[in-house]
From TrEMBL:
GO terms for biological process: acyl-CoA metabolic process; fatty acid biosynthetic process. It comes from Edolisoma coerulescens. InterPro entries: AMP-dep_synth/lig_dom, ANL_N_sf, Mitochondrial_ACSM. SUPFAM superfamilies: Acetyl-CoA synthetase-like (SSF56801). The keyword tRNA processing does not apply. This is medium-chain acyl-CoA ligase. It comes from the Eukaryota. Transmembrane segments: none annotated. Residues 56-173 form the AMP-dependent synthetase/ligase domain. GO terms for molecular function: ATP binding; fatty-acyl-CoA synthase activity; medium-chain fatty acid-CoA ligase activity. It is an enzyme of class 6 (ligase). It catalyses: a medium-chain fatty acid + ATP + CoA = a medium-chain fatty acyl-CoA + AMP + diphosphate. Belongs to the ATP-dependent AMP-binding enzyme family.
Amino acid sequence: PSRSFHGNTRLLTSQIISYYESINQCKKELPEYFNFASDVLDEWARLEKDGRKAANPAFWWVSDEGEEVKWSFEELGSLSRKAANALSEGCALQRGDRVIAVLPRVPEWWLLSVACMRAGIVLIPGTSQLTAKDISYRLQASKAKCIITNDTLAAALESVLPSSQFLKSKLIVGRGIRDGWLNLKELL
């Protein structure tokens, strides 16, 4: 049983539960490795490209001012691969490294989330309401090698960054440029 939602067929909750029950009962094989970005997002992009899945936005964001960002599954896949490469090459991060993101809910937040999944990097989200003490604690406790923020919040964070012995790179999302910070748009 399935239902139609915007022309797409989706699994009902009972189907999802029965799928997981069949895995628990060893009737279905649990994949040894699973990566949402490559196993789900890229598969949906391929199905869309082949015409076997209706074209719907994978991501649709609208700002308070009405600005829209809309990415197809193929676009989100491509952008997330570029962002994963930017994190791996530009920020010198490897699988298992930790990254703290202190960002408002901008499109790049979701893009970096998928990019981290794709690259095997652990994303630690942080709200812009964190204090300097909160950020300092999170940097030390997580041993994060990179911090990601926007140009507005970067100034407030810089006071605690020198005390982080594990931090190797700092990444700005947006148009801003700061000494010692990489810019995501330039890396992409």
